[in-house]
Amino acid sequence: MSNLTYEAVNWNKPTSELAQVFWDQQWKQIWFPEEIAVSKDIKQWQDFDHQETYKKVLAGLTLLDTVQTNIGMNQIVAHVSDMQEKAVLTVFGSFEAIHAKSYSYIFTTLCTNSEIDELFEWVKNNEFLQYKANKISEIYNNIEVGNAESLWKAMYASVMLESFLFYSGFFYPLYLGGQGILRNSAEVISLILRDESIHGVAVGFFAQNLFKQFSLEKQDELKVWSYEVLLDLYQNELNYTNDVYAKTGLSTDVIAYIRYNANKALMNVGFDAMFPEEEVNPIVMNGIRNEGSTYDFFSQKGSSYAKAKVAPITDETFHFNR
Amino acid sequence: MKTYLKLNNEVLNRYSLTGELELDKDHDATSHYFLEYVNPKLRNFNTIEEKIRNLVEEGYYEKEFIELYEMEFIKKMYDKANRYNFRFPSFMSASKFYDSYAMKSRDGQEILEKYEDRIVIIALYLAQGDKELAERAVEAMMEAYQPATPTALNSGKNARGELVSCFKLTMDDSMNSIAENIGYCLELSRLGGGVGVNLTDLRPLGDPIKGILNRASGVIPVAKLLENSFSYSNQLGQRNGSGVAYLNIFHADIENFISAKKPNADDKIRLATLSTGIIIPSIFFELMKRDEDIVLFSPYDIYNEYGKRMSEISMTEMYQELLRNSNIRQIKSLNARKLYTEVKKAQFESGYPFEIFDDNVNEVHPLKNIGRVKMSNLCTEILQVQETSNITDQDQPNEYGLDVSCNLGSIDIHAASKVQDFGKLVDTSMRLLTNVSTMTNIKNVPSVSKANQLMHSVGLGAMNLHGHLVTQGILYGSKDSIDFIDCFMEAMNYYSLKSSMEIAKERGETFYRYEDSDYASGVYFDQYVNREDEEVSPTVLKALGNIPIITKHMWQALKKDVMRYGVFNSYRLATAPTGSISYIRSCTASIAPCTERVEIRDYADSRTIYPMPHLSNDNAHLYVEAYDVNPYDMIDLYAAAQKHVDQGISMTLYVTDQWTTEQLAKIYIYAWMRGIKSVYYVRQRLQTLEECVACQI
């Protein structure tokens, strides 16, 4: 038996700035794919021209979320020292698992079993998809105990994944959903996106705190490394997009959107944007507004209900200063 | 991608960065919508005569009502409508109209009606051959009156649904009644109705059946049956049926009922799509204030002991008596504050249940001597007396009581302030609503059809309050806004009552048991004839425009006439939440504050960006969003309106996720204290992470 001393997480004393905020926000947003009636999309799906693209886009996202659940969050959690941050990241990991599962939920609802099997085969064989999964996983797997730099790199990779690489996939459901096509599947995607944006901000924030501890020279070195990684991934995204979106004629719009999100990812880790500002498809832009669009009481679940904060009713409750 | 959708979405291009809207894009979107979508699909006719003749011959329009008019007159009506030079003010209004209201060919490929066509057809159809009314109807609808969706959508069409869509049913504590009412729900849901069902009179879980204890299954399984009925019976699969179940808070099943809407409830008891509402008598609030326990009862005991159903007694009056009576089982005792906290938790997590404040409703109910209002409908604005049917075995005749169907219409407040004769506008609206009621016969639900014939109830409401206030530079929730709605609703009350009196006078007929009502006794007028007329500020006066301020003397004269000639409609006013119809007219919904300056609205068809009416980059500060309006001010505003409304006003409360259950309880308690009759949804805005982080750093 070993003789290590184990420490308990103490939430009564904040040890990490904002950990509580990220924790609260994530739990408030809890959702499950089964709450959204994807089956209402079946009729449209049957007449939908670009099924192939749609399926591939979702399959690609499934792979990235799988990597993020199984490797990304786990690895980072294992090496982060702050207990509260560990807890927050563990929760994030669970949500990634929900995300990965919700793509399957959409597939199960819309596709046949043999189609689904083919799709998972495609995932294994698409070189660009495999490239990004490999690239990111490699950085995750290279974290060394006690090596802050390797941990920072993993956090950076995580932000790239969640704030940047996902978006070539998110584009299509948002683009269609905004035009009334496959709206319920799009709602699942927008709920996933709502979570990913917290993850990107939170991990980016933790990364920034870590980054400050490095010497200036180290910081410069890491910056160079970062932009190189980004460019490499960007190059791969161009190929991936051209491959998957070829038949839809949307590649140019998707790529503009990718650049927009690459800039956002950089800002999350505290770096300057790399690409010049440009116009992004307005339907897709409005699809990612998180404020909770106006709720139609007669339609689906909607994304704006959450956990209650309980406080007891007291005598004071009956007093009004009016 | 459709250009018009792209343009519509571009309204928000720079909004998140600079707060500047590109409103021109919305106009461009509307013109492109006509160029690309409407005009190519619109079937052209050479003359009006040809249009009418073809559409009748092809079986699109009903022949009968067209034949009531000469062609010359019909042409005149078209001229009249066309002279208004109507233009859709927003992309939302145009797309909503052409997507959902305009008549299309059976294969969906051709558009057969423009806006003016629809208006003229509604007018001709509802006027039933009365040329003067038809002409007034065209005027009213082109200017400020909007019938509710089922009337606007179905009038004049051959293949049509019902003109009314709102129903209330009472279920009795017997298998016959449960089965009969579920049958009604299937029928009404098939017709596209939203149905409210009162479950208060059903015995709770574990109650005796035929004297054997622990046999009854309680209200939840019945609610599940209702839910399944509504989802089975939909309109050709176009829209799911919808319904709401109500339960009194003193009913022994109340705890299960409250938690049944929570997203994490057990699937066997979870009500996923059925809405829920609870009836709360004042005694509950009083016990809660004193921090006492409340006792839950079984309607089975109450009926056995007093021969009255739970919904037929005033719990506030009877509560102490029930506690003293040893034949009444005290099924459970629980802390009122804790129970209400559970209600608030459920509301945060699901938006449900709605709440009806029983005594606020019944104390001022003008038909209180005829019976109690026991429940409300799907949008909590209909509050009418009901009488439970006695559903017997199949070899005996049923004795039908009174249930409710209600047809609704709304007046655009902004437009109404500009019409020449407000009294005439309200009178025309009342006559159109009254005709809808006389033209309606829901034959498969005898209790509804009977009540409709006897009661002629209607519900006239208002919309575009926030929009109008913005044009007047008045802040929603301010004293001026409250004074304004007070005057406006009083005028609605006065003129609708005057109109209903005139109709009674003309027809020589009043609603059933009018003589027992507070109108006949004159009690109804006490609040108006004994008070002093008050001055209003110049701002309010200007905002009222052509809407008269009703004086004490006007009320005194009306009181005399009403007591002499009677009233035709048992109920006249109710303010609905107004969804689609306010979009068509580019109005803000109901008398509610806007929820977003620029709404992002997801319909099945597409995502539409809808800047609020009259919104410009200069007046945006007046469009305070509902979540930022002080809820107490908003309740004061609704309370001022409620005083003049014989039924209810659908009121949604808006909170953010920063609120606790206690704060939420507090505004409900305030609403109850202010005489509000019902609270519809609680809507919650989640803070975005940026906001959370911003307030931390």
From TrEMBL, chain A:
Fe cation 1 binds at D65, E96, H99. Keywords: Deoxyribonucleotide synthesis, Iron, Metal-binding, Oxidoreductase. GO terms for biological process: deoxyribonucleotide biosynthetic process. The active site is at Y103. Its EC number is 1.17.4.1. NCBIfam families: PRK09614.1-2, RNR_1b_NrdF. Tetramer of two alpha and two beta subunits. This is Ribonucleoside-diphosphate reductase subunit beta. It comes from Ureibacillus manganicus DSM 26584.
UniProtKB/TrEMBL annotation, chain B:
GO terms for cellular component: ribonucleoside-diphosphate reductase complex. It holds the Pfam family Ribonuc_red_lgC. Its EC number is 1.17.4.1. Keywords: Allosteric enzyme, ATP-binding, Deoxyribonucleotide synthesis, Disulfide bond, Nucleotide-binding, Oxidoreductase. One of its GO terms (biological process) is deoxyribonucleotide biosynthetic process. It catalyses: a 2'-deoxyribonucleoside 5'-diphosphate + [thioredoxin]-disulfide + H2O = a ribonucleoside 5'-diphosphate + [thioredoxin]-dithiol. InterPro entries: NrdE_NrdA_C, RNR_1b_NrdE, RNR_lg_C, RNR_lsu_N, RNR_N, RNR_R1-su_N, Rrm1. Residues 555-577 form the Ribonucleotide reductase large subunit domain. The keyword Disulfide bond applies. Signal peptide: none annotated. GO terms for molecular function: ATP binding; ribonucleoside-diphosphate reductase activity, thioredoxin disulfide as acceptor. Provides the precursors necessary for DNA synthesis. Catalyzes the biosynthesis of deoxyribonucleotides from the corresponding ribonucleotides. Belongs to the ribonucleoside diphosphate reductase large chain family. This is Ribonucleoside-diphosphate reductase. It comes from Ureibacillus manganicus DSM 26584.
